[in-house]
Structures are given as C-alpha cells and as structure tokens.
Amino acid sequence: MREQPTNVVDTMKQKQAEAASRDSKSFFIKMTDGEEIRIRPVVTLDGAAYVYRHNKYVEGDMSAGVNALCAEDVNQPCGHCAAYKSGDKDLKPYEAFVLPVMLYDVSNDGDLVNAAPKFLELTPASPILGSLIKQTDVLAKRSLKLTDVDVIIKQEPRKSKQSRKSFSIAYDQAGPAVLADGRQVKSGVPSKEIIVQRTAQAFPPLVATSAPGSAANAAQHDAFAAETSAQPVFDNPGRQLKPAPTNNHTPTSESEAELVASF
Fold this sequence. Notes:
Blueprint: H1 8-22, E1 36-41, E2 49-56, E3 66-69, H2 79-85, E4 94-106, E5 112-122, H3 127-140, E6 150-155, E7 167-172, E8 184-187, H4 192-202, H5 215-228, E9 258-261
Parallel strand pairs: 8-9
Antiparallel strand pairs: 1-4, 1-6, 2-3, 2-4, 4-5, 6-7
C-alpha cells in the first residue's frame, strides 16, 4: 500500500493548487475549428503587452514539447534561447502581443449570462491582429475606441490539420455589456506588468541556470510554475456564442447591479 499522508486535507489542497497551476492556460483563449466567441477588449491595442514566446511540438511525446514565455520577459536569462543558440532551431523565439479581454458566455437560449477576464495572444501575422488594427482606425474617425465594441470571432473549419487557420471577424457596437439578470459587466484594467505575470504563469519560462536541457534547468522550470501557482485561475466558460441579446431585466437590489471582474 502506498504511504498515506499525515494530513489528507492539506495534501488535497496542495494537489489541487498544483493542478490549477498546470491548468493556468485556461485564462488564455484557445479556439477550435468552427468555434465562435464574443469578446470585449478592456484596453486599446497600445495597452497590450509585447512578449516573446517559445513553442516546440514533438509528435508522439507531449512531455518533450515546449510552450513557454521567454525568460527574458521576466528579466532572467532564458534556457530556451540558450538551447536555440546551441542548435535547436525549433526553439526560435517568436513575437506576440497579449491583449486582455472580457469573454462573454451565453445560455443555450442566447442570453448573456456571464463574463470572464481572459487574454488573447496575437502574433504579428495574425489576421485577428490585422483586423483589430484596421478597426481601431475606423473607430477613431467616429471618436470611438476598441473598448467600445464587441468583437465576434469565428474560427472557420479546416479541411485538414495542415491547412492554415482562417477567421471571420465582426464588430458590434453593443454599448456596455448587460447580463440577462440585469447586471452590468465591469472590468479592471491590468497593467502590462500584470499581463506579463499572468502569461508567465500560464506558460512558465525556463530560466537558464546551467546547460540547456539539464535536470537543474527542469527543476528551475518547475519551481517557477510552483511560485506562480498561487495566482488566481479563472474558470473557462463554454464559448459557443450568439450575438448578445437585449436585456430588459431590472436588478432587484443594488448588490446585483454589477458583475465586476478583475485580472
């Protein structure tokens, strides 16, 4: 029989925190073919954080893959950059912009029932980023900002996994988001430092403390993940969305007048 912990409840809490850390990617939006989402940017594009990322896919061995923030974004020497310079070209860093948004959740009846703070990662070549840049200029002519509109994004189905992703993108000047129960959605505005911190939590960087790929580096990676596990992890709501409906519900008390979300 396996040795049993002295305090089972404490062990449960520890393992739950570790699981939450492993699932911290849940506050980054990840779309699948045919999926549609409705989001509201909480900052204009100049409020997004500019970072470098490492992503390496190893077919048949997920544990050997890499999905990490470059450690230089947290002012540390990067183990993945060191491995890239040593010859692992799959670890070449790539640029990304991280945009904080509110992700809306709707019921099967199409009612807007919830909103959650999320992050949207955009590479320079992303068609979504290109659309957001163009829409920013369009809105400016009407004295509006990107934070004044909802963005509806659909990832179109692909014929094969090798096909490039394509998106349909639309904008809806819906005014302040109001849930079906009458609460108005409000959000804090995260600083770029907070955005980078959340990105590091979701995709722990590898700090170079020794030779690339060494046990010491792996331990450093795990330590960083454990250090950030105390940060809040947001639930990932279902995201098969329809346009936000018009809501006529009147709040019955002041306490239910708002849904305030924090990053």
